[in-house]
Amino acid sequence: MRLEGSEERYLYFQKTDESGLVWRSPLSFIFMDPQRSGIPEATFANNSIVLGAGRAQKHSVGTNGWVHYLGGWSLRFHEIRKGGDFRTWDDAFEHAAHVLLKDPLVPEGYGLPMILDDGQMFMFWEILQDLAHERAIEDIEVGRIDLYREFYEFEYHGSQFRLVFDLNDKVQIVKNGIEIEEISVRGSTRFRDAVASQLDALDTGFDDWQNP
Questions:
Q1: Alpha helices, DSSP H only, in 103-187?
Q2: Cα–Cα distance for residue pair 2/74, rounded to 1 Å
Q3: 111 Cβ partners below 8 Å, 6+ apart?
Q4: Is residue 191's pLDDT more than 50?
Q5: Of 4, 10, 20, 44, which residue is least crowded by CB atoms under 10 Å?
Q6: In 144-167, which positions are buried (b, 16+ CB within 10 angstroms) versus exposed (e)?
């Protein structure tokens, strides 16, 4: 258990694996800062605290072994008081034990090997899967350029495509090393249409005519 924070104190449940990576439960106890609560010491006995718990799910992304953790610790608080989510500390601890045993741990930090950071990029994985299935594209690799950019990469009719996602809600469509379009990732339809149009051009041979 680790206690961190300034204005509020977060009691986390975590472990460090053999590689030094920290894995944390999506559950934590949150103590009010003594200056705000008026109580000099934060304890289970005399402080009004809440239980924050999220849900974490592990998803495979791409075809080269990358994963994405959806969810994790959240700002959904469960108050422990009369009329709250839990009437007594016994009820709260019983719930906490269930979460600690059932929900997977979530890795802490960014830029971790084979773990996707970009949640926007994950949201479009299902769309890209559908486009690939329609065209019998079997391999879609995931990669990272730096802490701000990750990408999907695949080959179709001899052309190499890279879809680069960044933190500015933009995705660059790069073909054979040349950026050919940049779109916003705020709309799933726009993303699907932009990628599909590039692939359709190869299906019809129009792209070959444009680029002999």
A1: 119-123, 125-134
A2: 17
A3: 117, 144, 147
A4: yes
A5: 20
A6: beeeebbbbbbebeebebbbbbbe
Residue with tokens 């090997």: 113
> In the structure, what pLDDT confidence band is assigned to residue 40 with cuts at 50, 70 and 90?
low
Give the angle subtended at the CA of 94 by the CAs of 91 and 95, to the nearest 5°: 90
170 closest CA partner among 157, 181, 159: 181
**How far apart are alpha carbons 79 and 77 in whole angstroms?**
6
pLDDT per residue as tens digits for the range 124-178? 999 999 999 999 999 999 999 998 999 999 999 999 999 999 977 899 999 999 9
Q: What is the pLDDT of residue 61?
A: 96
Token reading at 6: 């300034």
Q: Give the torsion sign (CA, 15, 18, 20, 26).
A: negative
Q: Which of 61, 66, 74, 67 is nearest to 24 (CA)?
A: 74
DSSP 3-state assignment of 182? Answer: strand
| Distance, CA of 127 to CA of 165 (rounded, Å) | 15
Nearest to 201 by CA among 193, 190, 121, 140: 193
Q: How far apart are CA 160 and CA 174, in angstroms?
A: 8
Residue 79 is given by DSSP the state E
Q: Which two tokens stand for residue 136?
A: 């019998």
Q: CB neighbours (10 Å) of residue 64? A: 12
